[in-house]
Amino acid sequence: MTDITVKLDIHSNPQVSCEPPTFHANKGNQQIKWKPGGSQKFTFAALTGLSKPPFSSLNVTADEITVHDDDSTPGTYGYQITVVADADHETYSTRRSPLTDPVPCIKNT
């Protein structure tokens, strides 16, 4: 299992970021997990943009997101995570880049 750390900073742009911003997945089957970084105070609302296949079994709960990645062919997959801040109950999201390699993304090799 592999973790990606999600951080919220309402004073930055984008407000939600992922570490690593580009996750390099090894060939084969694996579960990828997104978790809040440090003492972040938000709940997960959604993860969108990952195509089926190779991704399946998406599960979004308040404190983590998991997805199964069947990395059978190379590809780069941009995604967007949406969270709700505990402090102001506002919704914030990662910003998808229109570049060749979108950020954040999963790069299957």
Beta-strand portion reads over 45%
Task: Outline the biggest β-sheet.
Answer: 5 strands, mixed
Major β-sheet strand ordering: 2-1-4-7-6
Query: In oligomeric terms, what are we looking at?
Result: single chain
Our measurement of the CA-to-CA distance between the termini, rounded to an integer number of angstroms, reads 17 Å
Query: Total strand count, please?
Result: 11
Number of helices: 0
Shape: globular
Mean pLDDT across all residues, rounded?
Answer: 91
Low-confidence stretches: none
SSE arrangement, N to C:
EEEEEEEEEEE
Global Rg: 13 Å
Protein structure class: mainly beta
Helix content: under 10%
What does this 3D model show about the protein?
This protein has 109 residues and is mostly beta strands. The chain is 0% helix and 56% strand. It has no helices and 11 strands. The strands form 3 sheets. The protein has a 5-stranded mixed β-sheet, with no helix packed on it. A 3-stranded mixed β-sheet has the order 3-11-8, with no helix packed on it. A hairpin with a 5-residue loop joins strand 9 (80-85) and strand 10 (91-93). The two termini are 17 Å apart. The relative contact order is 0.29.
Summary keywords:
3-stranded mixed β-sheet, 5-stranded mixed β-sheet, 109 residues, mainly beta
What is the gist of this entry?
The chain has 109 residues and is an all-beta fold. It contains no helices and 11 strands.
